[in-house]
Hints:
This protein is mainly alpha-helical and about 450 residues long.
Amino acid sequence: MVWKKKFALSTTQIILLSFLVTILIGSGLLALPISSAAGEAVPYLDALFMATTSTCVTGLVTLPTVSTWSVFGQIVILLLIQIGGLGTITIMSGLMLLFNRKMGIGDRLLIQDAFNLNTMSGLAKFVKNVLFGTLIIEGIGAVLYMLVFVPEFGARGIWISIFNSVSAFCNAGIDIIAENSLCNYATNPLINIVTSVLIILGGLGYIVWWDVLRVIRSRSPKNRRIFRHLTLHAKIALTVTAGLILAGAILIFVFEYANPLTIKNMSLLDKIQVSLFQSVTTRTAGFASIPQENLTNASAAVSIILMLIGGSPVGTAGGMKTVTIAVLVCSAFATIRNRNSATLFGRRISEGSIKKSVAVVVTFLAICSASTVLLMATGNLSALDAVYETVSATATVGLSRNLTGALNTFGKLIIIVTMYFGRVGPISLAVALGSKNESQNVISEPTEDISIG
């Protein structure tokens, strides 16, 4: 039928709609009086904002999570975070496998697009491993959190630990501990380490997990050169992640060392600990151990750069992604050196990867720029605060310089749309809204050189 073909949705469009439907259902549940701690329904715009920030695993909130939402509301938020972190397609595929339903070609295409994979082989096993691995890591994180939260909060500490573990692994940055996020635990080593490890594991991506495990299992006890045998993707993700965390921590340590509003009065060990956590959490996690509005302008600029880059592909993190930036930087250096191809770790980077990286960065920056201009048009806002807010929303980070709660109606709507666009992915959005693919048989236009730079 012609009309069926005309209105058929692509896999990418289905993914976009699945997130939108999840947000709308979540907002409806959060708008119910039972979801409010006060027993009275919160304004729908705030419920929509909360549903969006949860599903998009961002973390920006207009109302304090710990005091606004009832246990039922918190359960809804946690489910949205888990669904948003793993992806609606992954959850649905997992349910199909649970009930022994075989995945058809359409289901496999959805999973392939949802995780941006290059192959459809072994997708059922991949989904099982993702779900199982996620539950194991979140469970371990919850148990470790209980060592601190149960003695402090009693039985409620169990729920806080579970919530925080899921939120940290999914890089959501939403907590039900206090209105100042993790500021009360800025110098608690256990909370810092557990949260950081969960954030990093979620941000590295599932492909890196399986690759590291594959190499570990295949290596003999005498030959443990794991890094050497990893795939190029895993090498880039691990190297760039470690480099950014270390560089970010050093810069923040230097810029905040004499800042009395942040770490000046802390011991040297605590200064290092807080600086390292700030560097980790800006990688799309959103937990704050120091008030972001108290950061120096230099530290805020470093945090914006870290937020823009974000985590790695096929994980729970957002941002332009580590691999994307590494490919572009490598390509730029190759051009500067007048080389025909860009290489990393002895491997040539394909032209297709470079083009995709350019598309992701351009689309991402376009969303950030448009969002910043529109947000600043809603009121007399500081340029730094506005950029910090919009980058945080686009990269699904959740850190704010105390601006989110002060946004007017139009400001909230702008951030809601920005968070959604940031989560579904700039490149997925471009593909979904694009027209038909260009035919390979069409005669190409003539080439003409232009001046660059």
